[in-house]
Amino acid sequence: MTLRTTTLALVSALAATAAATLALTGAGPAAAAGVQCSVDYTANDWGSGFTANVKLTNPGTTPIDNWSIGYSYTGNQTLSGSGWNGTWSQSGKNVTVAAPAWAGTIAAGGSVSAGANFSYSGTNAAPTSFTVNGVACNGAASPSPTPSASASASPSASASASASASASASASASASASASASASASASPSPSASSSGSTGSGKAPALHVSGNKLVDANGSQVILRGVNRSGMEFMCVQGYGFSDGPVDAASIAAIKSWKANAVRVPVNEDCWNGYSNVKPEYAGENYRTAVKNFVYALRDAGITPIIDLHWTQGLYTGNSSGCSDVNSTCQKPMPGAGAATFWSSVASTFKNDPSVVFDLLNEPYADRAVSGIDQAWNCWRDGGSACPGINYPVSGMQTLVNAVRTAGANNVILLGGLAYSNDLGQWLAHKPTDPAGNLAASWHVYNFNTCASQSCWNSTVAPLAAQVPVVVGEIGENDCAHSFIDQVMSWADAAKVSYLGWTWNTWDCGQGPSLISNFDGTPTAFGLGLKNHLAAVN
């Protein structure tokens, strides 16, 4: 899925945490009612800006209505954008976070969390006092640094003007993380009985392909079941931040509470490669650090990260064009030359971590751009002159596989098919050569796709799944219900196929598949189907 033109967000390298557990006292209606509160403040700082997260908890016995948090900075911290999960505003050094319409009351024992991005220069001291509904809270915030996710050095990517592409048929924006592995191309041990993989507190399993299965270092089958985390593919290139909403430890814990063992992280070519069309604060090393921190945090929580190249460069205005922009601002039918630079850099970054999976292109749709399905599959694999009708230098899947392996990464690679990854009909016949033997098929299925019936799954997907691992990178439906994905998940469970729901974002599920209404993990009606199913099978 794709298409998102939203506001801001995210996280990056350093984290400074200040927790203030404060009782409301003094004059005013809140104090008269005996209301109590605790405010937790966290700042994720990347040097020239930061994400402020505030969590307001009601430990009292009566609800807090129409809540509003107030605090002040001592430096030049300046609000960027509109924030999320609250109405953020700033007057001078004073910041106010007012309740959104959908979360105006905090029940006894309940809490709400909100976040926003800020810019600054100089020092970034945490606020030392808070108010709730205008009433001062006693106590002081005493910030103490928390360790950030480890980040390995990433080579500087060259700012190439060459075209690259990624496509999707519907409104969506995904989040995915990639990994590098040292997996052998030789025959691996026979897998043991199927399991869903680690959801414990340890690191995610090292993965490689064995026959038609993903297996861990012990040869046990790992079935990935989880969610997409959209945001990193569009927020940076739109100039708002790194992600749509928080990607901190609390947000990962919320995902994990659904029993998810995999998260797909969609990313952006322009931002990773550091092209000049992206604001410097969200490009190059800053962006790569943000992605790495999220990927490593997922991995360390026992969740398999899947890095998905979602938006890429390439000027395409033909059939089913998503935009008339050469930059990575929408999905393109195929990746351009810059995608090879991207994957070489990503592979170098994660090549020593086989828990990270690479998804080479979100949703190819060369079938909409060239003449005939056979030509489209040739274009998919070979790129270049095999892609008449696409007026930029196309990198085929073989080129991208070569870029990953030449960089020394043997990580598992996912390859989405045509028709926005819904068509896997000629995937096996056009499978690229891989010296590591670690290729798997990526499939996307929504209720509005062509291959949306069990008869199609049985005739096209099942025969492929009998020969190579299949990961359903996106499942969803556009009616805010879950009857369709219930069918998909039951079918996939029987076929021992992995799947991830689209998407862990607080968007309107009536306009597109959105799993949650709050980043604390509160499910939408659509998301409830996935949540309940994961709880039953993982």
TrEMBL record:
Q: Which SUPFAM superfamilies match?
A: (Trans)glycosidases, Carbohydrate-binding domain
**InterPro entries in the record, alphabetically?**
CBD2 (IPR001919), CBM2/CBM3_carb-bd_dom_sf (IPR008965), CBM2_carb-bd_dom_sf (IPR012291), GH (IPR017853), Glyco_hydro_5 (IPR001547), Glyco_hydro_5_CS (IPR018087)
Gene Ontology terms: biological process: cellulose catabolic process
A molecular-function term among this protein's GO annotations: polysaccharide binding
**EC numbers, comma separated:** 3.2.1.4
| SMART domains in the record | CBD_II (SM00637)
Domain CBM2: residue ranges: 30-140
Catalyses which reaction(s): Endohydrolysis of (1->4)-beta-D-glucosidic linkages in cellulose, lichenin and cereal beta-D-glucans
Tell me the keywords, alphabetical order. Answer: Carbohydrate metabolism, Cellulose degradation, Glycosidase, Hydrolase, Polysaccharide degradation, Signal
User: What ranges does the record give for the region Disordered, renumbered to this chain?
Assistant: 183-205
| Record's signal peptide | 1-32
Show the Gene3D superfamilies listed in the entry: 2.60.40.290, Glycosidases (3.20.20.80)
Q: Which family does it belong to?
A: Belongs to the glycosyl hydrolase 5 (cellulase A) family.
Q: What is this protein called?
A: Endoglucanase
Q: Which organism is it from?
A: Kitasatospora phosalacinea
